[in-house]
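ok, trying the design again with the full structure, not the truncated one.
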């Protein structure tokens, strides 16, 4: 059996081959489809190959697997931590990968299925377009700032804002820049709209998206991004693993007799999904509920930014519970979910069945009011639980007796109707929904 390491670049790959006997050998191959197919034809069924995850990794791996050989994708960050070398060349990197593979010491990454890979491409393409749209909008804002113009509309790119942009007096060269940026903006908007329609179709057909959208602040794009990154939720045995995978866990440093020090989040994993969860946290803390109470508690001690990241971590934990258990968020707002589904249908041009304005004779406004009342009660229940827990901890620190049920923490959480809403955040779906 041969162990083969590939150090892949844009136009070539350095190959190192370790056989059971004899010294290692190396060669360089091209990364075109023809060159890789020719290399794959030289492989044997009992060969094993390793390459680091990079932009064209999956295409190369799929082509090499056609030979019947085992192909392993290595996590580049962990590989560098294991095999950092003073002498670093392409040949050394390829040989190091081959040696780690021969010793069965490669930090392997999960290989997504074709459907998950396609979803990742769609979500990444939308993220790229949104970044480009933001850059164009910033150029227009910069022109207005240079010309000392203050837009009267809150949304410069809404109907009122666009009408004002068309009539505002600007120098000729600045007007040319604004008009050019607006034309680019319209083209990007059209492409974003096309992608949103494709994603809306996927969201309506995916049950996991429905569950995630019951979480406050999570919309279809956020839900699809989480699903694209996570893939099979069963590979995360507990919510902390998912939080760590998304890079929302804090770094911990400890050496010698010094106590452990907790720092900033690790920022490992995909930055786009992490950013979308932070955006969802912004929306989630705007409505009453346990998440807002949690945000305010952290904000008083650590500031707004740290509190928002902490809420994003809570959202990732809630997502793990909902996806693992096949359940919905306990404090789901029916009226908000209805709006989210209608927005998806609107993008697809689906008229749908006309829904009643309310349920049980209630108007939609009355339903919203009842939901807000329940959320306010849940927020008060969470705040009271935290206050009682601090009181018990303070009493225990002073050596005083505490009155606790004997069945442990889970029993204490379940004794209050709202306690598990933030900590587990799910409830079994009715009628399989």
């Amino acid at each position: 059996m041969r162990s083969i390491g590939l150090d892949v670049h844009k136009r070539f790959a350095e190959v190192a081959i370790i056989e059971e006997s004899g010294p290692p050998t190396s060669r360089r191959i091209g990364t075109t489809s023809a060159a890789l197919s020719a290399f794959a034809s030289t492989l044997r069924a009992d060969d094993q190959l390793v390459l680091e995850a990079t932009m064209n990794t999956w295409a190369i791996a799929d082509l090499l697997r056609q030979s019947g050989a085992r192909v392993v994708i290595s996590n580049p960050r962990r590989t560098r931590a294991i095999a950092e070398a003073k002498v670093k060349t392409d040949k050394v990197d390829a040989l190091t990968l081959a040696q780690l593979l021969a010793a069965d010491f490669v930090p392997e990454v999960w290989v997504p299925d074709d459907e998950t890979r396609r979803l990742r491409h769609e979500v990444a393409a939308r993220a790229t377009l949104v970044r480009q749209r933001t850059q164009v909008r910033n150029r227009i804002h910069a022109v207005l700032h240079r010309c000392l113009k203050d837009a009267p509309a809150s949304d410069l790119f809404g109907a009122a804002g666009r009408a004002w942009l068309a009539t505002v007096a600007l120098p000729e060269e600045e007007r040319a820049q604004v008009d050019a940026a607006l034309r680019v903006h319209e083209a990007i908007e059209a492409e974003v709209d096309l992608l949103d329609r494709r994603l809306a179709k996927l969201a309506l057909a995916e049950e996991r998206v429905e569950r995630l959208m019951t979480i406050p602040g999570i919309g279809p794009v956020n839900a699809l991004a989480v699903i694209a990154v996570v893939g099979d939720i069963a590979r995360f045995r507990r919510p902390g693993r998912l939080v760590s995978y998304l890079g929302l866990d804090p770094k911990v440093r400890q050496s010698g007799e010094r106590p452990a020090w907790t720092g900033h989040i690790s920022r490992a994993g995909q930055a786009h999904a992490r950013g979308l969860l932070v955006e969802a946290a912004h929306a989630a803390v705007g409505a009453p509920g346990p998440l807002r109470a949690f945000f305010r508690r952290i904000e008083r001690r650590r500031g707004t930014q740290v509190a928002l990241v902490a809420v994003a971590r809570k959202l990732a934990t809630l997502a793990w519970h909902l996806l693992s258990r096949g359940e919905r968020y306990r404090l789901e707002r029916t009226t908000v979910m209805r709006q989210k589904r209608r927005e998806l249908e609107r993008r697809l041009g689906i008229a749908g069945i006309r829904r009643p304005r309310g349920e049980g004779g209630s108007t939609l406004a009355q339903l919203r009011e009842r939901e807000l009342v329940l959320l306010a009660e849940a927020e008060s229940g969470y705040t009271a639980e935290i206050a009682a827990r601090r009181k018990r901890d303070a009493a225990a620190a002073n050596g005083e007796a505490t009155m606790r049920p004997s069945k442990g923490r889970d029993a204490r959480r379940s004794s209050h109707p709202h306690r598990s809403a933030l900590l587990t955040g799910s409830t079994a779906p009715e009628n399989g929904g």
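Keeping the full-length input from now on. Strands lie at 3-8, 12-18, 25-30, 48-52, 70-74, 250-253, 261-265.
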